[in-house]
Amino acid sequence: MTYDSPHAHVPGPVFEADQLVKEYDDGRVPALRGVTFRIEDGEFVSIIGPSGCGKSTLLNMLGALDRPTSGSLKFKGTSIPDLADPAKYRGQEVGFIFQAFHLLPTFTVEENVQIPMFELPWSRAQRKKRAGELLDAVGLSHRLGHLPTKLSGGERQRAAIARSLANEPGVLLADEPTGNLDSQNAVQIMDLLCRLQTEHRITLLLVSHDLHVASHANRIIRMKDGQIVSESRPGDVAHSPQA
Ligand SMILES: Nc1ncnc2c1ncn2[C@@H]1O[C@H](COP(=O)(O)OP(=O)(O)OP(=O)(O)O)[C@@H](O)[C@H]1O
Ligand SMILES: [Mg+2]
User: pTM of the entire structure?
Assistant: First the structure.
């Protein structure tokens, strides 16, 4: 595959959060209660914790899909909530993968993968070529013209991964990417994500409540009740009584 990220791998953190707070419903729901962390360029970090602890909330802040209530959150030194054009940031810097795949049902697999490319100044031929390469990389070149409804769950997630890479992001935000898959497909998807992350040195943040999935990362951040409670390397966690 010829996926080459145009993003310079600069030293220093890609993401930096300091005392990040997010409250919903006028403060009645404290989803994040003072979260502080750094994510370095090219790292693969898993965020793990029980349902409702704030994992998706955190990912949404990182992807500029929602705004924090207080605290600071920076992408390569720039404040994410203060971005003049959050859509441009999402379009140029970030790829998203969701538990529910979020493929558009009336578009073919190939068209779905091309959707993020419409933000870029690419010709029709360039888009088509790149979609073909990405779908080849995820093992779906035989399904280009299929509608998502005709694919298996694992195939849909592979198509969604191809789409997440379409805009050549430096950062991939994955929220429970194996949550709707059986264990065999989950293994394949994790192998694929790990391969893509290593080959292209993408900074990958993966949210999961499954320790096996999370353990593919270089670092695991464990959350509880809107706070970070511990950090570890997968080797340590395997022997942790909390695991
Ligand atoms: N839009 C919203 N309005 C109000 N409360 C919300 C909203 N989104 C999330 N919450 C609440 O914020 C808290 C954190 O939710 P979040 O979705 O981040 O949890 P999570 O860790 O991703 O859980 P899960 O593993 O179930 O996906 C929960 O108590 C949730 O009910
Ligand atoms: Mg969630």
Answer: 0.90
> Among the CATH numbers 3.40.50.300, 3.40.50.1220, 3.60.10.10, 3.40.640.10, which is that of 13-236?
3.40.50.300
Instruction: Please tell me the residue having the least CA distance from ligand 1 atom 7.
Output: 24
* In the chain, where the domains are located: 13-236
pLDDT digits (tens, 9 = 90+) for 105-162: 999 999 999 999 988 899 999 999 999 999 998 999 999 999 999 999 999 999 999 9
In angstroms, the CA 109 to CA 141 distance is: 10
Assigned token pair, 27:
């403060």
Ligand nearest to the CA of 23: 1
77 CB near ligand 1 (under 6 Å) = no
Task: Considering every ligand atom shown, identify the ligand nearest to the alpha carbon of residue 67 and give its number.
Answer: 1
The SS3 of residue 44 is strand
What tokens appear for 96 in the block? 């998203």
